[in-house]
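Dear all,

This email documents one entry for the complex benchmark we are building for the journal club exercise. For each entry we list the sequence lines for every component of the assembly. Then comes the predicted three-dimensional structure of the complex as a token string, followed by one or two observations. Please use this as the template for your own entries, and keep the labels exactly as they appear.
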Amino acid sequence: MVREVVTLEGHIIDSRVLGTVLDDVLAQGGQFKILEVHIGTTRDERSHARIEIAAENLDKMHELLEVVGKHGAIWYEAEDALLSPADMDGAFPEGFSSSTNQQTFVRHGGQWIEVRDQEMDCGIVYDTAASEFSCLPVIKIKKGQLVVMGEQGVKVVPFERQRAGGVFEFMNSEVSTEKPKHTIIRNCAMQMHAARQEGKKLLLVGGPAIVHTGAVEHVVHLIENGYIHVLFAGNALATHDIENALYGTSLGVYLDRATLSEGGHAHHIRAINTIRRCGGIAAAVEQGVLTSGIMYECVKHDVKTVLAASIRDDGPLPDVITDAMVAQDRMRDLVKEVGFALMVATGLHSIATGNLLPAWIPAVCVDISPSILTKLSDRGSFQTVGLVTDVEPFFRSLVAVLDEIEKG
Amino acid sequence: MVREVVTLEGHIIDSRVLGTVLDDVLAQGGQFKILEVHIGTTRDERSHARIEIAAENLDKMHELLEVVGKHGAIWYEAEDALLSPADMDGAFPEGFSSSTNQQTFVRHGGQWIEVRDQEMDCGIVYDTAASEFSCLPVIKIKKGQLVVMGEQGVKVVPFERQRAGGVFEFMNSEVSTEKPKHTIIRNCAMQMHAARQEGKKLLLVGGPAIVHTGAVEHVVHLIENGYIHVLFAGNALATHDIENALYGTSLGVYLDRATLSEGGHAHHIRAINTIRRCGGIAAAVEQGVLTSGIMYECVKHDVKTVLAASIRDDGPLPDVITDAMVAQDRMRDLVKEVGFALMVATGLHSIATGNLLPAWIPAVCVDISPSILTKLSDRGSFQTVGLVTDVEPFFRSLVAVLDEIEKG
Amino acid sequence: MVREVVTLEGHIIDSRVLGTVLDDVLAQGGQFKILEVHIGTTRDERSHARIEIAAENLDKMHELLEVVGKHGAIWYEAEDALLSPADMDGAFPEGFSSSTNQQTFVRHGGQWIEVRDQEMDCGIVYDTAASEFSCLPVIKIKKGQLVVMGEQGVKVVPFERQRAGGVFEFMNSEVSTEKPKHTIIRNCAMQMHAARQEGKKLLLVGGPAIVHTGAVEHVVHLIENGYIHVLFAGNALATHDIENALYGTSLGVYLDRATLSEGGHAHHIRAINTIRRCGGIAAAVEQGVLTSGIMYECVKHDVKTVLAASIRDDGPLPDVITDAMVAQDRMRDLVKEVGFALMVATGLHSIATGNLLPAWIPAVCVDISPSILTKLSDRGSFQTVGLVTDVEPFFRSLVAVLDEIEKG
Amino acid sequence: MVREVVTLEGHIIDSRVLGTVLDDVLAQGGQFKILEVHIGTTRDERSHARIEIAAENLDKMHELLEVVGKHGAIWYEAEDALLSPADMDGAFPEGFSSSTNQQTFVRHGGQWIEVRDQEMDCGIVYDTAASEFSCLPVIKIKKGQLVVMGEQGVKVVPFERQRAGGVFEFMNSEVSTEKPKHTIIRNCAMQMHAARQEGKKLLLVGGPAIVHTGAVEHVVHLIENGYIHVLFAGNALATHDIENALYGTSLGVYLDRATLSEGGHAHHIRAINTIRRCGGIAAAVEQGVLTSGIMYECVKHDVKTVLAASIRDDGPLPDVITDAMVAQDRMRDLVKEVGFALMVATGLHSIATGNLLPAWIPAVCVDISPSILTKLSDRGSFQTVGLVTDVEPFFRSLVAVLDEIEKG
């Protein structure tokens, strides 16, 4: 029998890592002996466990170590990660280590080094000069850069939900409409308020239903009160917000009467045309053409905005970044500063943001359709709290709770 | 050529009946000559038009008259409706006239007599003693009762949406999530307030998601403020409301924390058991066992309640009517007094209510799933305004707007 | 420190029970020592583990034993379950043990006795004469019957998914539309074929969308080929099936042309009336009035049928059981013989069936709306495999695969 | 009173244009006198009607003419359309005439000239050299080009559904799941077969659920049998198709077993990396790396493909066009040749295609979520037939029916 000792650290009881590791060892045909379990006695003290695992041969042992390594088990006798130079621009060598959105360490020179710029579905490259590992999208790799290969010497530390507190305590594996909505919204508000107090940047990712459902005034309120510092959206949100500012309609429907405007189907393209004539949104604000709405407030309050194009766009507005990779890169930069993400009524931009966000940044995704939330989860952004509810009433409640919190 | 003169009356321009009739005549191979069009010049003045239609033979003319009769065209030369005695209990003669939920007149003795108790999918029976026609469900017909046969002498007057005002002005053929929600909710509130001012009875048809989403407090507020006089629901709404009153949970989830209660999965059956031990909901209120919630308020405010059983019921509560036909009949009685219906988060009870409501009673159906609203519409309750939104935030907004309206 | 030894038995590794128990002990502040782990080496050999758990006092120990008992840990030093006589008809004593749909044992006279008629949300009563425990719905309890109280001496053995094989291997916690549909349908077919080969009864629970989507021919094929022995449905499925047989329409839409029939909105009520005139479905078949369709085949092939009324029913057909509790009881009887359940396009009847089915009976629930499947899961029928797909194409594929399997 | 004579032409009875015009005249306070109605007696003969309309003043008359002009009423005394030169690049003059996707004529030099390249939400520009009007997206307008202004001299001829035949006969305003699916699929197949026989190009617009649900083999069959000549998709469809070809998984789920692959979450990024290493999809086919699947068949059968990027893309594949406006333009070019469009499981690309397609090109949009279809319709692509069904079973049925049709 081959034997190795692995160590588990962190809040291993809350996150059920210990039991999972033991079960996996047995399920894979291994055996285990618990050498030591130390349970943290306060909320902040971390637990650790040392387990000897046994396998019938070296191959089997490597399988076992790989399996338990995924749950965060550290094999101190681990070898360094393998590095291989990229043999071409824009593609990794076959067999590269593919990143997740979880905290990751790479063993190098006998040390576990935390990976920077954590992002899922990237490669991990080594900067020899800085002695740093960081995630890099495939499109950006240059020939000669050192790429981490395979699973050896790579350790993933799963995000611990229970200890996270805040909105994550409400996290559910199941997306359901039958939840106490106000409780969840209140918790979301508390988390947003706390993030603002701690000086973190808050991100809103939004779709045009924000305008269609009549929630512009609430988002304006959030911007004015310092709850939105970064905005990711598309041409549609901006266009319909401006349509509403100029014509009082969204998709041609009067928002204050819920009736269709005669000729209103053309309002959005007229709005785009008007902004194009001004030379852009900020210019339209300066020229006094655009005097209200979300985009107006973003200009006034210096909200950092990425308007990313999609192929269904009319126009688009001059401010829209038409190249997806350029837009993605701008989002990638801004996401680094974000401490809380609120994603509302846009599958496209929410999944895009979920792709870029590390697992430990709290994120709430709101949509009236459960299927958007299921898709987000299917694509690996399982750390996002999914809330199935309607856009305008959601923002109305959120704003009311935030106002209450501020009043104390 | 056979020629006949038909008359259209009512708000025939607003409801586009005139054009529809002319198009149909032409489409069916007939010809027409407009003899007279008189347009009402005030909102209340009705319009009328006299049209001569021509067909190549009598058969064709009868077809034409049948088609245009459906749009409310009156054929003054009409013959009386045919009556036939029921030949058995519990079934109409084959060829009976099947009713809709629209206002209907039957020609008898050369007179057009309005049908009473209008309800879709019934037969129309004649009470010789009272000289009255009324709708009767098939299950209730007794041998010998006189039943209206075929289409002759039966005239349906379609409900005129545009003139109806209030919430009906927002009526859309399309069920969409992308509508200005607060505008629609505000209009719904105004209609409810007006109905209450006019002394009409308001009906709430509700599903258990009212409790699951945390909306009990809002419904309690509505009852206390005189906005709910009749309640149609099932065992589930009552059970989870009582579970919430007794345990603070709904389906075992703490509503103020959004977390699962240990052992909470049994709370609803324990709640049922407790009420069964008391002998019923009113008895539980009297004994001080049930002291809050929707059902408590219904007892306290004398809301007329029908709790209709379904086969998925646990228990059920002693107050639940287990026979569907008995429950339906009780609903049929109560619906007669209703001037406004609010149907929330229950496909089953909403469709049941839609089956019983005449087309001219304003009804708003709220559900987070568009498919429920599409089903309601597929089943003929097309006069219902469908609102795709979330339950708790809907009630929260509704209550806030009603409070504003009352404050003036 | 108080110490007790508990034993885990069964396929504890596959079902991750061991790790879960250890984690729970630690999470609740207890400690553990693994005395023995024996892993079954063949698929059929069961594993067992003996664990000593320690708590700081007796109260804490009882908590621990309760928690681990839920995962199937047996405390051999367990005391007998407490029994208390019912003090009235129709309600259990407060504090009764509420049943789940999992296999359950009650300790009595030092023996673990398996509970019969396992069904969720019931009480457990003891039949002194037969020395048997069985589940009993609250409505049926009679004064004086002995009822199991609390958690002492009650052991639940969770259903082991991985070992179950067949369709259960595909079980997912997440309801998603993005799954390989044909693979899942093929597996469902294989399970149905195996169940038929083993002489088990197959249950179809169906909603009217079976008819609306044009799947009648496929269900007829299943009946003719011995894949449906029991049918649970409502008035709507039967009515629209008969409407289709008599008129070629469903809800007035011609199924072979997908166009609306003139006057078709009355077809379903005429169909009901016709069957009422005959005296019932079987009588209509006998009289040659009903000559095709699902209900016709059910009569011809002696499929045991429960048509349960709901308050939204028109008519209803004479065969419909109008009292929900009577219908539920008839379903309860028939469910006892069922070895596989296929539930299609009916939230109402599927949840009703899920309430009655023990967890170990394989069940597949098909609906185009994910929310129905989420509701089913929220209500405790988590063992059901949810398949989000469309009704007619589902049956078309299912029938094709079954035909292939039969041809070998 | 001001009087004008307008003429209606085309299949005005079938499309209910006559009645609509008359109703609108009355509703707007005008009067009418029918001078002549000639009904086409064969399917191909067109009808016409001449109507004198009267208004109290010239302003009112212009309003009336504008309203009835939208229904295709021709005012022979019409003045020419107003043209104005663009005063800058990339934006129209304010007040430009905004195009729809319906056939449109512009009056110029007393002649009605049909507009080319019909596309919604564009401006209409006049090419003096060619004496042609055509639609132009706002982004493409150059200073000095002549732009049609306002509504004067612009006539829209609505697409006539009833006469269209084929799949359009099944068109429903309501999106519903409760339709006879096979009938609709069969009709779709017949239309596709007819289009192929007539030498038209067929377009598939597809999302990744085609791969996730296991429908690759069916799409391959369609390509091989000449039913797909153009493909619009994103990086995701191509990536998961290639993931499936290389690893047998989609999003890491084995399609033939419906179980998650260990390490499978990285398969899609490995697939992208592999194709990037090859230099593109065609190169990967050439090098023998990619040997099956949809993208492979597209290369082999020379299907014209637009893979348009979105911001949520991983990678992307080298073949993906990252600039949305470049991709849109390539789609715009290819759409001109298309005679039938099948849009499956992609809201993004379907709405993008709907934006580009003229109303008279038959289009079927398939999605399991009704909300996608409602959105498509809300955005003006109301001519698209919406089919709520599941992807894999849809393609399975479609292929089977096409095979039957070919066998005759």
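Observations: The first strand of chain D starts at residue 2 and ends at 10. Confidence is low (pLDDT under 50) at residues 169-173 of chain D.
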